[in-house]
Design goal:
The complex is a heterodimer of chains A (266) and B (525). Chain A contains five helices and ten strands. Chain A has 266 residues and is of the alpha+beta class. By secondary structure, chain B is an all-alpha fold. Chain B contains 16 helices and no strands. The chains are: A alpha+beta (266), B mainly alpha (525).
């Protein structure tokens, strides 16, 4: 009994401590993620309006046209005019949705004129990053603290682990205000690379090279995860992107190139 | 059962009794009951797996199961619910209802009917037995995407063989449905006079025949890739992993309509009955169903927008997918127009049907959002998708099955269920289904991927709520079983026409309906 009450209290406490009732998609920091957010909200509001109208009529009917209120059934049915009206109106609304959606899609798929290229390779269960022009390359996997805490029976309180399951040993560093082309592939099974605030996801598939582009407008640390089931540790291969101003990025590249050379000469 | 056997003797049938009666039966009602009870059993097995999943996801961190077993649970939960619970439930309803609705004595192909049911227990025994293998059950998701599914343990050939059996069973069932509907209608019942449930099942049967062989092809190629050195789907041998996804979803999308079209038929039957008013647009309902079925063959790649298709492909599949909203909208508007100025009462089947319309439409709205390719890049493979398809399959398809059982139970058994308990069952089910699945929209949008056994702490609160809802939903279904069993124990009292507004040939038969529904065909004008 005591243990149950402690359990309940700990749940209540945790509800307060991490009260994070996020209900919506985060706003992005790139033109592509923002466009996705705007489309998402547009379609959402359209469906809300349709929902209010349709369910409104339905509930009016449920409350007023009930036998207990003495409603007598009408006998009307079949009306070609009505059927045409409620076929055409949704069709027009759909065209209204399709136009902005197609424009956004074309913008998202245009990877031309990028300044740097990052190649991402999915492995079970980590990511490899190659900066194609700058000759930097490293693996990135789940941070040790999270990895210890996530084991069955670890008895570590995961709520006390910073960025539990969303932290890595080596972060991806990208420059802000730069069009970066991201190439995606995989060495074993299909993975998917997704950092919601930066870009929608795209699959990393063995034998394929897929493309994405990002242009991060705000420096910061952005986190994401693998989003295609890739085996037992699918839930444990996060992605962390640190966006820094261009100069800082150049410094980071030269530092890491040197390390690489030093490693080779050893 | 003893009353049934007496009944048989009267009609001079020479059939074995006891277990052999059920194994050898060729009667559409017996087989319908077998399908429905089997479906209920599978619903609880699949539901138990869902509760293991929700227990693990109650809190972040791993408490109960290791990730590999978690993946087996998500995979098996889906396979059991789709192939074991929903599809047999609809086939069971078809068996019971189609002959009664079209004025026939039985299904057209009774022995085939027996065979198509009795394949199922073998298939599912084999499928479930893989969970006890040392290497465990299938863990690559019900979609079986290679190369991951090719890494699976010894379960893989067993899963594939059981899927082959299930496909064969479905195709046999579909052939029987088509043969029955096209050949055994009462004189005067033209196609456009058939009850709407019969129409939806006719179209569904064609979908089954067209799509199940495609699945069989895909999984056979998986099998030869694994054991016979082919490389259909392995990049290293010159194959293409994405090819599997195209083939799979060419089956998979018609498959989801196989699960929902008969549900549309049920709701289109129940709403007019309790609104005491004819279905608003019978013809347009038939055309809408047929349009949805045709569209289902040209939208498959919306399940795989993120695989890196050419822009033209992405645009094509976005447009075709959005188009589905038109006939689906026609259906919803027709249901609302049927209720309009009716004289409604709210017995349990009606309550489940009304909840179906609202909650299925919510699932339709999230489906429309998912159709928008650039937004789908964000939604894809998150809990938003999980919320979407559970809204269309649980308060969609499952609610329709439950509504159908309450609606036709007095006809099948001659006994009326307890209306108060039925309503309690409805409200518990509806409240808990929303507590379970609505928060999944939120965590999905906030960035929680699907098919993960553990999650970042910011997703904790909504996951706790969803888990509480899931257990509540599961327990509510025990009440359903209680209601069914207590109804069966009652004496026969139900009227031939159990509902004031019910229409159709089945209500002209006595309750319970005679063993051979119509010995002489009724006249339909």
């Amino acid at each position: 009994m005591k243990s149950i009450s402690i359990f309940l209290i700990s749940i209540l406490a945790s509800l307060n401590a991490i009260a994070d009732w996020e209900v919506n998609m985060p706003r992005g920091v790139t033109p592509t993620a923002n466009a996705a957010y705007d489309l998402h909200m547009l379609i959402f509001y359209i469906t809300v309006v349709i929902g209010i109208v349709v369910f409104g009529v339905m509930f009016y009917s449920i409350f007023h046209h009930r036998k207990s209120k003495g409603a007598k059934p009408a006998s009307f049915h079949e009306s070609t005019t009505v059927e045409i009206i409620w076929t055409v109106i949704p069709f027009v609304i759909l065209i209204g949705m399709a136009i902005p959606a197609t424009k956004t899609l074309i913008m998202m798929e245009d990877t031309r004129n990028s300044e740097i290229t990052l190649k991402v390779t999915g492995y079970q269960w980590m990511w490899k990053y190659d900066y194609v022009e700058d000759n930097v390359s490293f693996f990135s996997k789940l941070d040790n603290k999270s990895n210890e805490a996530r084991q069955l029976g670890s008895e570590i309180d995961v709520k006390k682990v910073d960025n539990y399951l969303l932290d890595v040993d080596n972060q991806v560093v990208l420059p802000t205000d730069t069009k970066v082309r991201i190439l995606l592939t995989a060495s074993d099974v299909i993975h998917a690379w997704w950092v919601p605030e930066i870009t929608g996801k795209k699959d990393a598939i063995p034998g394929y090279i897929n493309e994405l582009w990002v242009d991060i407008k705000e420096p910061g640390v952005y986190r994401g995860q693998c989003t295609e089931l890739c085996g037992k540790d699918h839930g444990f291969m996060p992605i962390v992107v640190r966006a820094v101003p261009k100069q800082e990025y150049t410094k980071w590249v030269s530092l890491n190139q040197k390390n690489r050379v030093a490693e080779k000469s050893e | 059962m003893s009353t049934n056997i007496d009944h048989l003797k009267e009609e001079h049938h020479h059939q074995p009794s006891g277990l052999m009666r059920w194994i050898t039966t060729t009667n559409h009602k017996d087989i319908g009951s077998l399908y429905l009870w089997f479906s209920l059993l599978m619903f609880f097995i699949g539901g138990f797996m869902a509760l293991i999943i929700r227990a693990e996801l109650f809190q972040p961190g791993l408490q109960f199961v290791i990730p590999g077993f978690f993946n087996q649970m998500t995979t098996m939960h889906a396979l059991i619910m789709i192939f074991g619970a929903l599809m047999p439930a609809f086939v069971g309803l078809a068996n019971w209802q189609l002959p009664m609705m079209i004025g026939a004595p039985d299904m057209a192909l009774p022995r085939l009917n027996n065979w198509s049911f009795w394949i199922l227990p073998f298939a599912f025994t084999m499928l479930l037995s893989t969970l006890f293998f040392q290497s465990g059950g299938p863990a690559a998701g019900w979609t079986l995407y290679p190369p991951l599914s090719l890494q699976g343990g010894n379960s893989m050939p067993f899963v594939i063989f059981s899927l082959h059996l299930l496909g064969a069973s479905s195709i046999l069932g579909a052939i029987n449905v088509i043969a029955t509907i096209l050949n055994m209608r009462a004189p005067g019942m033209t196609l456009m006079k058939m009850p709407i449930f019969v129409w939806t099942w006719l179209i569904t049967a064609f979908l089954l025949i067209a799509s199940m062989p495609v699945l069989a092809g895909a999984i056979t190629m998986l099998l030869t890739d694994r054991f016979y050195g082919t490389s259909f789907f392995t990049a290293a041998g010159g194959g293409d992993p994405v090819l599997f996804q195209h083939i799979f979803w060419f089956f998979g999308h018609p498959e989801v309509y196989i699960l929902i079209l008969p549900a549309f038929g049920i709701v289109s039957t129940i709403i007019p009955a309790f609104a005491r008013k004819k279905l608003f647009g019978y013809d347009s309902m038939v055309y809408a169903t047929a349009s949805i079925a045709l569209l289902s063959f040209i939208v498959w790649a919306h399940h795989m927008f993120t695989v890196g298709m050419p822009l033209a492909g992405e645009i094509f599949f976005m447009f075709t997918t959005m188009l589905i909203a038109v006939p689906t909208g026609v259906k919803v508007f027709n249901w609302v127009a049927t209720m309009w100025k009716g004289s409604m009462t709210f017995e349990t089947p009606m309550l489940f049907s009304l909840a179906f319309i609202i909650l299925f439409t919510i699932g339709g709205f999230s489906g429309l959002m998912l159709a928008i390719t650039p937004a789908d890049f964000q939604y894809h493979d998150t809990y938003f998708v999980v919320a979407h398809f559970h809204y269309v399959l649980v308060p969609g398809a499952v609610f329709a099955v439950i509504a159908a059982v309450y609606y036709w139970l007095p006809k099948w058994t001659g006994k009326m269920y307890n209306e108060t308990l039925g309503k309690v069952h409805f409200w518990m089910t509806t409240v808990f289904v929303n507590i379970t699945f609505f928060p999944m929209h939120f965590v999905g949008l906030a960035g929680m991927p699907r098919r993960i056994p553990d999650y970042a702490v910011q997703f904790t609160d909504f996951n706790m709520i969803a888990s509480v809802g899931a257990f509540g939903f599961g327990l509510s279904q025990l009440l359903f079983v209680y209601i069914l069993l207590s109804t069966l124990k009652q004496p026969v009292t139900a009227a031939d026409k159990s509902w004031e507004g019910a229409e159709g040939l089945e209500w002209t038969l006595p309750s319970p309906a005679p063993y051979h529904s119509f010995d002489t065909p009724p006249k339909v004008d």
